[in-house]
# Entry
Amino acid sequence: MGGFHGELKIAGHTVSRCKNCGRTYKSKPAYSRHINHECGKVEIHTCPVCSRTYKRKDIMKTHIKDLHPDYYIRERKLLENRILSEDFLSRNI
Ligand SMILES: [Zn+2]
Ligand SMILES: [Zn+2]
# Structure
């Protein structure tokens, strides 16, 4: 990726590039928000049933499957229904 970070001029616009992840932002506020609130933060996944927190989504899913099977089955059905209806819609455009 060249290791460039800081400000960059693209077609007359000053673009700020995040040195951590390489994302570019055309507006300063969006860039600061990214630096302060988004980038480098570990995403925490919270179990919607018992509020236990997990750093990995797959582990949280296993937890839900094992400890709250009813919830897991219900969510899966909702998801399947949504996928089915999206599929139905895209075919009828
Ligand atoms: Zn970043
Ligand atoms: Zn739980």
